[in-house]
Amino acid sequence: MDNNNEIRIGFYICHCGSNIAGMVDVADVAQYVEKLPGVALSRHYKYMCSDPGQELIQQDIKDHKLNRVVVASCSPLLHEHTFRQATEKGGLNPFFFHMVNIREHDSWVHTDRQAATEKAKALASAAIQRVAYHKPLEMKKVPIHPDVLVVGGGIAGIHAALTLANAGKKVYLVERDPTIGGHMARFDKTFPTLDCAACILTPKMSAVGSNPNITLWSYSEVAEVKGYVGNYKVTVRRKPRYVHEDLCVGCQECIKACVYKEPKFPDEFNEGLGKRKPIYIPFPQATPQVVLIDPETCLQLKLGKCKQTCVAACADRQAIDFHQKEELKQIDVGTIILATGFKTFDAKRLAAYGYGVHQNVYTALEVERLVNASGPTGGEVVLRDGQKPKAIGIIHCVGSRDEKTNRWCSRVCCMYSLKLAHLLKEHSDPATEIYNFYIDMRTPGKGYDEFYDKLLDEGVHFIRGRVGEVTDWAFTPEEEGKLVMRVEDTLAGYVRRIPVDMVVLATGLEPHTDAQAVRRMFNMSCGSEGFFLERHPKLAPVSTFTDGVFIAGCCQGPKDIPDTVAQAGAAAAEAMALIDKKYIEQEPNTAFVDETDCSGCKSCVPLCPYSAISFVEDKKKAVINEALCKGCGTCVAACPSGSIHQNLFEDEEIFKEIEGVLAYD
Amino acid sequence: MIELTRTIKYEADRVKGFGHDVMKVPGCENLESCIQCGTCSGVCPLSIYMDYSPRQVMALTRSDFKNEVLRSHTIWLCASCYACTVECPRQIRITDIMYELKQRAIQEGIYPKRFPIPVLAKEFSHMAHSWGRVTENWLVMRLFLKTNWLAIFKMWKLGLGLIRSGRFSVRPDKIKRRRELQKMMEMVDNVALSALPPALANNNNNHSNSKGNGQH
Amino acid sequence: MKYAYYPGCSLRGTGRAYEESLLPVFKALGVEWQEIEDWNCCGATAYMAVDEVKSCVLAARNLAIAEKAGYSDIVAPCSACYLVLNKARHYVEESKAIANTVRRALKTANLTYNCKVKVRHPLDVLVNDVGLDRIKKRVTRPLRELKVVPYYGCQIVRPYSTFDDQANPTAMDRLLNALGAELVYYPLKTRCCGGSLTGTLPEPGLLCTYILLKEAIKRQADVMSTCCSLCQFNLDAYRDKIAAKWEPVEIPVVFFSQLMGLAFGLPAEQIGLQRGFAPMKPLPAPGVAA
C-alpha cells in the first residue's frame, strides 16, 4: 500500500458554500498546507461532500498515489462516514482518513476572518501531523440477538410488540400494571373522530395476549439490564399476584365469592371514583384475563385470617396461591424498546384550583371515567355530591406552560378538553353551560381544527384567559353554593366571576416519577424536563444515545395517540433493521491491553463506565471486551504502566496532533 | 349623541424604547416572556376597578405605549399584595413592574391633581426621609391637607375613636440620627449615576432631577 | 438566642396593641429580644413607588445596625416591614448594582450589610423556634368554643414565602389550634385587605375589607385573627363607612398575639384588647365551662 513507506497526504478544504469560505480564506489555507511535510497535494473545493467532491478524492488517490487523506470541512458527525467511504473507494483503508472541523469549531463561531483563517491553518497542521501515524483498522462486527424486549404495555408498547411479532420476531412485553392498555384503556372516546377508545384498543390487547411470538409479562418490572447492543441480558421481576396465570381462566367466580360482599376499596382503574374488592380484575377487557389479589386489603394476606371463600370457589382449578413469591426471569435480547409512558400532573400542586379541597373539582382523567358507559356512574355525569352539574368549567394548561410547575406544552390537553366538553354536553342536560378556559387554543393535527369548529357550533363557551382561582366564597346571590371561577376574559376585556357546579382540570403530562432511575438502568439520557432524550430531535427521533435501545410514545415527550402509534411503529422498524442485518458494525476506536506490560494492578477495572474490562485470574491480566468498549479513553489515561492503548488515539497520534497545533506558525 | 374618540393606535403614539427601558430595571426583566394569559388580572383583587387590566398594562408597557400606561388608574390601584407575582406562570414580577411605572409617573408628574395615592407616596417618603419614622395620623393629616382638606372633617369620628382607644400619636416619632440617614440618601443620588449601567444611570438621573424639580 | 426586635412605625401608632400583646407573650415564653437601636421606617410599600433603590437603603440601614450588633435574626411583626426588609435583602443579593449603591450609602454611616441577618415574622419564631409544645404548656385558659378565622393577609407569604406555604399558609392555624381555638375554614386567608387604598381610594379599598369581614361573619366566626397591623386597622376601623355603603359587619378583629395573651391568662387591658373598635365578647371563665 505505502510506496517505500513514503507518506503522501492529500489535503482538501471545503468552502461549504459560504459557510466556511465566508470566514476562512480557504485558498490561503490550501496554500499553507501544500508546503507542510508529507503533503502531496492540497486543494480547496466548493462542496467536498458532493459527488464530484468525493470523486475528486478517489481520483487523486489513484493519480497522485496518495496514502493519507485529510478533509477540512464540517463536523465528523455529519460527513466522516462519507469521506471514509470515498477514501476506501479510492483503494485505501478508510482509517487512513482524518477530518478537521473548521465549520462548527471555526467559521461559525468567529467574526475575525484573519484569525479564523489562522486557526484553520493550525487545525489543518495538527491533522496533517497526526494522519501520518494512522494505522489500517477494521470496523468491528457484532452479532445481534433476534429477540426484542418492549417495556411498557400502553398503546405504544402494544403497537411496537405487535408490529415486531407480526414480522416473526420474538418479543417480551413487560408491563408494570396487572393489565396492558395503559392510559388509553381508561379514555372514553378519542379525538377528533370520537371513536371509542376501548373499541379500537381492546382488539389489539387481545391480539397481544394470543400472539405466539409475544411473551406477555404483566405486573412485572425490569430489574436489571446488562450487556450491549445485540446482546442485552435483562432480569425481569415478576410481582406476585397470588394467582397462577397459567391456571386462572378469568371466570371471576372468586371475586363473587370474596368475603367482602360489596366492593369497598378505591378502584385504581376508575381513578378511585369506583370501588373494587381485594381480589379483582382491573376492567372487563383486561389482558391477561387473570385476577389478582391486593395484599394491602386482602384479609388473608394482611392478617392471615380469612375464610378463603375465593379459594373454595376456585377449587377445581386451584389458581389461587397465597404463598406465591416474587420471581426473577433472565432473558437475552438484542434490542430494547422503551414505551414507559407518562404520568399526569398532580393537580394538588396548584392550590389555587382547589383540587382535593373542593369535591366537585375533577381531573380530566376522572372525567374520562365519569362519562364512560362502563365507568363508575354508568356514563351519567353525577358529581361527588350526587348533583348533576348545570354549569361546568374546564381549565386548560393545568401544570403546563407554567414556570412553577412544568414549562412545556403538554400538546394533548386542548384537544382532550374539547373532547370532554363535547362528551359532557352529550351526557348532560341540553341546557348545561360548558366553559373552556384556555391560554392559546392548540389544534394542529389532521381534523383537529375542524373539531374545534364543531365545538363552537355546539355552543360550548370559550374564554381566553388562565383562571386565577377556583373558590367557594360567594359574592353575589347566584354564586351561593357554587364554585366560582375568577378569570380575565382577555378577549372581551373584563375580569369575570363565573359560578359553576363542576370544574375539570386539564392536567398536563409529565415524566414518570422514576424516569431517572429507568434512564440510568438503560444507560440513556433525559432532557432537562425529564423525558427520555432521543438521539436527534428530527433525524433520529426514536433512537437513543445507547445503541439498540429505542423509545416510543410519551416517555419521549407528550404526544397524542396517532403520534404515539407512529413512533411505536418507527421504533419497531428501527429494531428490525438491526435484527435483520444480523450484525452491527462498530467503530474500531476501542482500547486494548498490551499484555506484556500489564502488571495486573486492576486499577482500570472499576473505572470503566461500560463495564468492559475484566480481570483474567489465571493470566493476572486485564482484558477489554471490544464489543462493550465505547472508546472513552478513561482506562488509557489511568493505566499506571501505560499498557492500555486505544485505536485512533495512540500516543504518537495525539502527541503529533498537539505538536501540529502548537508548532504551527 | 354619542361621543366618539379615536381608538386606533399609530406608530407615533408609541414612545419607542419605553418598554425596553422598563424591562432593563432589576426585577422587571421577565416581562419579555409574557404570554398574555391574564392570570394577573384573574387573581388581582383590585382588577375589578381598573381601567386597564394588569395584563393589558403589561402588553402596553412592552409595546411602548408609555402615555397610556402612565395615565392608567391601574398602576395606582395596585395595593402591592403580590398575588399576581406569585401566580404568574412566567414568573414576571408584576408588582415590581407596577412600582417602576408608579415611579415613572411620579417623576414625570403624570397623575391627576390632588390624586391622593401619589401624594401619599411622596408625603410618606418625605416623612421617612426627614424624621426617619412615619407617624400615621400625622401622615394622614398631611395627605388630606394636600388633597382634600375637607375630608378631615369627615374623618372626625375615626380620629376620635383612635384618641379614645389610645391609638392617636400627639407627637411625631423621630429617630435620633436623622442626619446620618439623610447623608445615606444623598449618597444614593451621587452613587447611582456612577454605579449603574448606562441605561439605569440615565434613569436615575431623571430620578434626582425630577425630584429636585418637584420637591424644592 | 436573643432576637433583634424591629417594631416598625405602626406598632408605635395605630397598631400598638400588637406590640402590647406580643412582647408579654414573648416574655411568658422566655423569648428574649432587644429593640434595634435607633431603627428607622422600613419605607413600606409607599416608598417603593417613589424610589426603589432608596427604599432598599432605608430598609438596609436597619439590617446593618442589627448585623453590627451581632444579631442573626430580626423579628418584624408588621407584614409590610417583614416584606420590605426581606425584599431589600433579596435585591441586594440579586442585583449587583443595587448592592453597590446600598453598600456605599451605608458606608457614610460606618455601616455594612452582608446579608447575614435573617428577617423573621413572630409567627415563624413562635411556631418554629419556640414550638407548639412549649406554647401548649403555657396555655392556662384554652380558647375552647371560640371560632376563629385565621387571616394572614398578603405580604407575610408573598412574594417571599420563607416559612410557610404561599397558597395555603398554616402557621397561624397550628398556633391557634395549640391555644385550643376552633378554626373556621376561610378561603380568603391571604386575600388583600385593601392596604393603604382604604385611606386613599375608599371605594375599592373598603370593598376588599368588606369582603373579608362579610365572609368571616358568613362562616360564623366569633373573631378574626390577624398578624399585620395594617390588616387589623383596615378590618377594625372602617366599619361605619362599610355599614353606610353596604351592610353592618360587626366582628372583632384582633392580633393573634392578643389571643395568645388571653389563652395565657394575661389580663385583657395588658394585651391591648380595649383598643379595638369592635369589642370581643369575654371568654368563659376557666373551669366554668365544664
Task: Give a quick precis of the structure.
The complex is a heterotrimer of chains A (665), B (216) and C (290). Chain A is built from 17 helices and 34 strands.
What would you note in describing this structure?
The complex is a heterotrimer of chains A (665), B (216) and C (290). Chain A is of the alpha/beta class. Chain A is 27% helix and 22% strand. The model of chain A has no long low-confidence stretch (mean pLDDT 95). Chain B is mostly helical and 216 residues long. Chain B has 3 domains: 13-107, Fumarate Reductase Iron-sulfur Protein, Chain B, domain 2 (Orthogonal Bundle), CATH 1.10.1060.10; 116-164, no CATH class; 178-215, no CATH class. Helices cover 58% and strands 0% of the residues of chain B. Chain B has 13 helices and no strands. Chain B has helices at 18-24, 39-43, 54-62, 66-70, 74-77, 83-87, 94-107, 116-131, 136-146, 151-154, 156-164, 178-195, 198-215. In chain B, helix 12 packs across helix 13. The longest helix of chain B is centred in the C-terminal third of the chain and has 18 residues, at 178-195. Mean pLDDT of chain B is 86; it is low at 203-216. Chain C has 2 domains: 2-120, Glutathione S-transferase Yfyf (Class Pi), Chain A, domain 2 (Up-down Bundle), CATH 1.20.1050; 137-275, 3-Layer(aba) Sandwich (Rossmann fold). Chain C is built from 13 helices and 8 strands. Chain C starts with a strand and ends in a 27-residue tail after the last helix.
